[in-house]
Amino acid sequence: MTDSGRCKQAQGDTAIIREGPGREDLRDRGVDKEPTRRKAVLRGKTRLRTFEVVGLWLTRVILWVAVLASLFPTAWVVTASFQKGDAFFSNTLIPKQFTVENYAKVIRETDFLRWVKNSLILCTGSALIQVFLTATAAYGFSRFRFRGRKYGLMTLLLLQMFPASMALVAIYTMLARLNLLDNLYAFMFVMAGGSAFNIWITKGYMDSLPKELDEAAMVDGATHWQVFRYVILPLARPMLIVVFLWSFMGTYSEFMLSSAVLKNPHNYTIALGLQRFILNQFAARWTLFSAASLMASLPVVIIWMFLQKYVVSGLTRGAVKG
Amino acid sequence: MHERVRFPDERAYKRVFKGSLHASVCITLNREGSYLADVRLEGITKTFGEVVAVRDVSLDIADEEFLVLVGPSGSGKSTVLRIIAGLEVQTSGHVFIGGTLVDDIPPKGRDIAMVFQNYALYPHMNVYENMAFGLKLNKVPRDEIDRRVKACAQMLGIADLLGRRPRELSGGQRQRVALGRAIVRQPRVFLMDEPLSNLDAKLRAQMRTELQKLQRSLRTTTVYVTHDQLEAMTMGDRIAVLKDGVLQQVDTPDVLYGNPVNMFVAGFIGSPAMNMIEGRLEQREQGLVFADGGLTLPVPDRLKQMISPNIPRLPYEVVLGVRPEDLVGEPAFQEAHPSWLVDCQVEVVEPMGSEVYLHLVAGTASLTARVGPHVNVKDGMTWRVAVNMEKVHLFDAKTEMNLVKR
């Protein structure tokens, strides 16, 4: 009774633990753990060495600088979009006069909504096609053993090393021959053309799905296609969503190929529209441009918000535990 | 559900029928009109590159039989099972299921169900969907699926888990679901690949009994792979012992235990393992004896008659095999057979409760004896033991074959 009373008192009052004569006492009775922990906490609070303090502050400053550096452009564009006038450089971080006129103008005076629509059609279509192509290719590379499998995979990586713009002339010629220039739907297939990187990571993900699942399904009476459709595809969904997103965003901001292929303003994507926006029609009307680009980023942000939990699980989760 | 399906549905019949090369002879019906679901392996060999995993295995598994394939890891037992399932294709040889040659039929056409060691439940489906998956693929009507899944779940005691995902189940429950997934399909053959090895010891013993009961009531031909000789002994109607891809012996547990064909089977079956003492057979003045460095044991006449045709000359290098229970400590037995006595040094006493394992050293040989619980021995003391020479085995030291045929 008296013992436990003393313990309680001792733990309650750190001074006693630190200096009091009772400390050795407590250790002897095996209640050492609690006081030492407290001691550590106390030391952390009071006796930080000078170089530790400096180190911590350095870390903080670097973090803040990094945060500001990455947020500043966004903040600048946001404020610019609410600014009156055209000039970007007269901009201040807090707008002198707040207005939504820029947004209204973008929608009223340009084909902005059409560009968004084109972009969404193009990006969704090509991303879906690419997901299909990636999933089937990855399944093949992951599950089948065939002649040329190893070299096929290496070739994919090799091809990936060349920039897409290298194929520009070839793609342009091909589309021209087929009389498919300036055709949004044909261009969709061009953009969906396989990404070796996606195939590789999806193959890796499928490799981590236990082979017994395939076998169980085969014994259950499934064909290869049914194994793919009912077992592998649902399990690879997180990874495929990542592929979808990357493909979507890649196409969304793609400029070089689309500027070569899509000539008719009717077929402009957002990237094309925005570029023409600066160069021709609204030379140096940066405030309008800011408003347009902010609105343009909305679809991606929305899709990202819906799918981000899958992205995290797709990138971090290795094997599916049965 | 407890009764064997007498008339398999038309579709399954057609599926097998269509897939077969030997369509005209493919379905053998027995008297009652159901499938004959026997499995026959003829000279199965499987190589992976240079490695021979299975070498010329021929095996007849009768309809409704529970056959256990047992062997150490790497003995090719799983490969044999996977060849029966159609998940691996044999390099040479033939597989027949129910009289049908199924070499060219993929797993889906073989009308088999398999239980995997890690269960291989579909993680994205709940228990009901897991069990229904195979039936759905085979286009069984929905109400029929529902009826069968529910009846099967009832039987396995997992009816209240039907809505759960595999990851929300315990090991034992997953095991049951995996079983259920096989049972609802009402296949001709169950293939089980070490289905109990992921369970803890207590659950394993319990599931062992349940599996046996289940197989007895379903009367479905079952091929069961395990590395655990205890599982093999307790569950199998017959046991096939494999070593390095070669079939050693196929027989009932009793025969395997009492009359192993070679040293491997003798050492593999039974726990604690059979004692092996290297030595030679010699002719001495008291007759034929087994002798190693330290001990000399007379060979009784019955044993002598059994082995003499197999022994070309004397002295002959042999290995004496003694089951731990044939090292006898009872005074009455010892008095009756004074020439079988051996003085041993007791190294370790292992009390198991109902019995005691004694680890002994006699001359150069280490022995394990299994004796009753009330034996009065301590580590380090000398203990006199009688080797029951009527029950020993003698193996040819070169070929490792058993010279004794009982």
Structure description:
The complex is a heterodimer of chains A (322) and B (406). Chain A is mainly alpha-helical and 322 residues long. Chain A is 75% helix and 0% strand. Chain A is built from 17 helices and no strands. Chain A has helices at residues 2-12, 14-19, 22-28, 33-46, 50-81, 101-109, 112-143, 149-161, 168-177, 184-192, 196-207, 211-219, 224-235, 237-252, 256-261, 270-281, 286-316. In chain A, α7 packs parallel to α10 and α12 packs across α13. The longest helix of chain A has 32 residues, at 50-81. Chain A is globular, with a radius of gyration of 30 Å. The two termini of chain A are 52 Å apart. Chain B is of the alpha+beta class and 406 residues long. Chain B has helices spanning 10-19, 77-85, 127-137, 142-156, 171-183, 201-218, 229-235, 253-258, 263-268, 301-307, 331-336, and strands at residues 39-48, 51-61, 66-70, 92-97, 100-101, 112-115, 189-193, 221-226, 238-243, 246-251, 275-284, 287-291, 296-298, 316-322, 327-328, 341-351, 356-362, 365-371, 382-387, 393-396. In chain B, the strands form four sheets. Chain B has a six-stranded mixed sheet, with helices on both faces. Chain B has a five-stranded antiparallel sheet with strand order 13-12-11-14-20. In chain B, strands 15-19-16-17-18 form a five-stranded antiparallel sheet, with no helix packed on it. The longest helix of chain B has 18 residues, at 201-218. Chain B is elongated, with a radius of gyration of 25 Å. The two termini of chain B are 43 Å apart. Mean pLDDT of chain B is 87; it is low at 1-33. At the A-B interface, α12 and α13 of A face β6 and α3 of B.
Query: Distance between the terminal alpha carbons of chain A, to the nearest Å?
Result: 52 Å
The strands making up the biggest β-sheet of chain B line up spatially as 6-7-8-3-9-10
The whole-angstrom Rg of chain B is: 25 Å
Strand content range of chain A: under 5%
Enumerate the spans of chain A where pLDDT stays under 50 for 5 or more consecutive residues. Answer: 1-35, 318-322
| Helix content percent band of chain A | over 70%
Global geometry of chain B: elongated
Amount of helix of chain B: 25-40%
> What's the total helix number of chain A?
17
For this structure, the quaternary state is heterodimer
User: What class, by secondary structure content of chain A?
Assistant: mainly alpha
Largest sheet of chain A: none
Mean of the pLDDT scores of chain A?
A: 79
Mean pLDDT of chain B: 87
Number of strands of chain B: 20
What are the secondary-structure elements of chain A, in order, as H or E? HHHHHHHHHHHHHHHHH
Which two protein chains have the largest interface (Cβ within 8 Å of the partner's Cβ), and how many residues from each? A-B, 20 and 27 residues
Number of helices of chain B: 11
Tertiary shape of chain A: globular
